[in-house]
Amino acid sequence: MLELKDVHVSYGSVRALEGISLQVGSGELVALLGPNGAGKSTTLRAISRLVPLRRGAIVLDGAVPLHRDPPEGVVRRGVVHVPEGRQIFPELTVEENLWTGAFTRRHRAEIRQDLEAVYQRFPRLKERRHQLGGTLSGGEQQMLAIGRALMARPRLLLLDEPSMGLSPRLVEEVFTIIGDLHREGVSILLVEQNAHIALQVAGRAYVLENGRVVLSAPARELRSREEVWSAYTGLR
Ligand code: ATP
């Protein structure tokens, strides 16, 4: 479904990605692991066109050069980013935040249906639909960020550190939702520092270090060799 071929990204003189190649198949849940600064978030930003490629290609469905689309074009193709730190709009209500997720869509009746579906999945957001986004708890903001992404009808979700700053109970709740979305057929590329929890839900994983893929394997294999590769990469 998605293929990155030799992707290079720089921030000024900082070389963040130095030739990333990876694939996410249709219906797959793939984890992107690695220590701080390895280039995980930059990989997601490159896919959603928030940073330009210096070299390489990003191809959707074997044919579409995603790296030539503007960011809203990527969303229109069903590739939707849930950024690190959630980045919801603090001054908008929960419901207004959800509507912003449908910015590429025109059919209001369909958008309303999807809003109801998001509220069914996240009853807490429904209870708080008139509350300002900035007043939600960390876990609720993460759910709002995922709910907002669902309003764009994603085929592929790019999730950046959904466990960040959440209590173990909330991490479990968020990962249950991620697992549900995957079972419903949404493909997912999941960036996580918490390798242990990511490998519980992922089918395959890539480990990044210094802007390069240093390891790629089925999650099952990485789970059984956790002590070996966690010592090697310094990950939990
Ligand atoms: P973390 O888990 O800490 O978020 P990461 O693996 O997501 O790390 P990135 O955020 O992709 O890593 O950063 C990759 C490299 O690019 C790092 O060396 C970082 O300092 C650098 N970098 C990221 N954003 C910028 C920026 N806006 N300007 C300059 N350098 C940046």
Present as ligands are:
adenosine-5'-triphosphate
* Euclidean distance between termini CA atoms: 29 Å
Order of strands across the widest beta sheet? 6-7-8-3-9-10
Strand content is 25-35%
GO biological process, one term: L-amino acid transport
GO molecular function: ATP binding; ATP hydrolysis activity; branched-chain amino acid transmembrane transporter activity
Organism: Thermaerobacter subterraneus DSM 13965
Domain ABC transporter: 2-235
Please describe what this structure looks like.
Keywords: Amino-acid transport, ATP-binding, Nucleotide-binding, Transport. InterPro entries: AAA+_ATPase, ABC_transporter-like_ATP-bd, ABC_transporter-like_CS, BCAA_Transport_ATP-bd_LivF, P-loop_NTPase. Residues 2-235 form the ABC transporter domain. Belongs to the ABC transporter superfamily. The protein has 236 residues and is an alpha/beta fold. It has helices at 40-47, 71-76, 94-100, 108-121, 123-127, 138-150, 168-183, 195-201, 219-224, 226-233; strands spanning 2-11, 14-24, 29-33, 55-60, 64-65, 79-82, 156-160, 187-192, 204-209, 212-218. The strands form 2 sheets. A 6-stranded mixed beta sheet has the order 6-7-8-3-9-10, with helices on both faces. Helix 3 (94-100) packs parallel to helix 6. 40% of the residues are buried. The model has no long low-confidence stretch (mean pLDDT 92). The structure holds adenosine-5'-triphosphate. Adenosine-5'-triphosphate (ATP) is lined by residues 11, 14, 16, 34, 36-42, 193.
